[in-house]
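Contributing new records

If you add data, match the layout below exactly. Sequence lines come first and carry their own label; structure lines follow with theirs. Keep one chain per record. Anything else will be rejected by the validation script.
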Amino acid sequence: MGLLTSSVLVANVLARKHSPKPPVDFAPPPSGTESGSSGIFPILMVLGAVLILGLIVYLNYRAKQRRTAGFIQMAHQLGLTYSAFDAFGLLGYPFSLFQRGDGRGIEHVVYGEWQEIHVIAFDYWYYEEHSDGKTTSRTYYRFDCAIVPVEADCARLEIGEENFFTKLAGALSFHDQQFESEAFNETFRVKCEDPKFANDLIDSRMMQWLLATGVGYGFELVGNRLLVAGPKIDPIALTELLGVSRGFVQHVPKVVYSLYPG
């Protein structure tokens, strides 16, 4: 009897050992989990866009602060005065550059006596608006400029490189004037309402100076004022702009002062 019972027990153990295990019953995910995870992505995208926009605004603000501080420092070093805005009404001056675009502005004005000449230097920008009937966009053009006096009554005249006048879209309707220097004619375009005045002003000495120093700048004479315009610069490069402006006046031939007294 004991042997029979032991045999039955062994048979039951072997049967349990070789029987397949029942499948594990995985519970389905709670309802709403999938839709909840997909619904959070738009929120994350909006938050990311807000963060990027905030970073751009902050970086622009910091760049403007640094630029302002740079001009204040340069004005102090050069013994000049700084103004954040145009206190002289410069946009009312009759320079063709100030008539470009659909809107314009002046800021970061540095002015005073510098190396025996009165200078006004500033940031200048204008924009052109473009519309396709549905949306409107703006294209900005930025310059750093200086205005200095010329003790003569000058005819309206512009001197600039080809790309400078292309950017200004040929503000004057006068024809280009040619000079005896081929190198000068290939580098600069000259427009003047009085060809004789242009010939009296741009002698060989002035041409040599312009070829050596004036590349990259545009020059405009109206009455007794000279406007020098160049690309946007760091404040530390202000002395270069002022030096070019002063150099132009120093190279005006004496005959101009005698024939066109201011």
